[in-house]
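Project outcomes to date are best conveyed with an example. Our students and postdoctoral researchers have been running inverse folding experiments weekly, and each run begins with a structure described purely in tokens. The record below, which covers 297 residues, was selected by the lab manager from last quarter's runs and is presented without edits.
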């Protein structure tokens, strides 16, 4: 997609007003709270990233709502990503007399408070799967609670509108289906002989995965092109095996964003605890089979 021209000062409210229509795009907002506020969990650093998205790429799922979270634990950092739709933010601003800080803070404060209270549960690693199945409350459950100083962050925009990438898609899929284990770390291909002066991999270049590696494919030498294909196949196979329904959802959402023909199946999230599909219902995994002939067999 063509990114929208940004206001010179990247004013968040102006960016929201200029949101692209009929496209899947997002902006990242930087949220800051008072410096004397205790936002430090006992065991890890807590990072909250906030994104506003024009439309939901998983919109085929009924009752999706308009706000979602994803949790990532890496090294000593507990990262919680918050996604809000443009209509949700605009509606919240109307409720708060145009005050964007209060509108965003209602969601961000809820997430921050919950993440601090539930640090041990989040870093244990099983939260996304359990939340998707209804076995533990979502981080946004207490949306109407009083979250004190968290309710009014200062807000800055990091950049203008840009296309929804694979990272955001896997976050949105995590909220609905649990984690899809897609390795998105940078790629450094092993040296080969003979060395090609025109091959960026031969020159020691690293590639972001998957977009940068895909873009560089045609400039790779033969051995590195083959190595990149093997690596891509292995990563996708691992992701598919980790969460079949979630990976099908990623695939369908990618097609939807790029306006390409979508797979006919429409993967549905896991049934919440206590809600078992009828035997003749379509299976929740998106296989297209009846539940009795798939996961209910």
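After processing, the design step wrote out the following sequence:
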């Amino acid at each position: 997609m063509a990114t929208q021209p940004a206001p010179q000062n990247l004013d968040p409210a102006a960016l929201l007003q200029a949101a692209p229509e009929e496209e899947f795009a997002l902006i990242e907002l930087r949220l800051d709270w008072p410096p004397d506020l205790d936002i430090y969990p006992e065991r890890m650093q807590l990072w909250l990233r906030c994104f506003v998205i024009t439309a939901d790429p998983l919109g085929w799922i009924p009752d999706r709502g308009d706000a979602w979270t994803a949790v990532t634990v890496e090294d000593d950092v507990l990262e919680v990503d918050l996604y809000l739709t443009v209509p949700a933010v605009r509606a919240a601003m109307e409720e708060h007399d145009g005050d964007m800080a209060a509108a965003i803070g209602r969601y961000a404060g809820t997430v921050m408070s919950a993440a601090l209270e539930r640090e041990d549960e989040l870093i244990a690693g099983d939260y996304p799967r359990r939340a998707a199945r209804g076995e533990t409350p979502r981080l946004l459950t207490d949306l109407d609670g009083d979250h004190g100083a968290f309710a009014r962050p200062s807000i800055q925009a990091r950049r203008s509108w840009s296309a929804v990438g694979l990272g955001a898609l896997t976050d949105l899929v995590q909220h609905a289906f649990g984690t899809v284990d897609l390795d998105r770390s940078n790629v450094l291909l092993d040296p080969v002989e003979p060395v090609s002066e025109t091959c960026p991999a031969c020159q020691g270049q690293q590639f972001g995965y998957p977009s940068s590696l895909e873009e560089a494919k045609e400039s790779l030498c033969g051995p590195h092109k083959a190595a990149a294909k093997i690596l891509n196949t292995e990563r996708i196979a691992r992701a598919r095996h980790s969460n079949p329904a979630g990976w099908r959802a990623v695939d369908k959402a990618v097609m939807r964003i790029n306006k390409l023909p979508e797979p006919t199946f429409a993967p549905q999230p896991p049934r919440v605890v206590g809600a078992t599909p009828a035997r003749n219902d379509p299976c929740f995994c998106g296989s297209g089979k009846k539940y009795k002939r798939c996961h209910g067999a």
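The radius of gyration is 21 Å. Residues 5 and 160 are 7 Å apart (CA to CA). The training component of this project remains on track.
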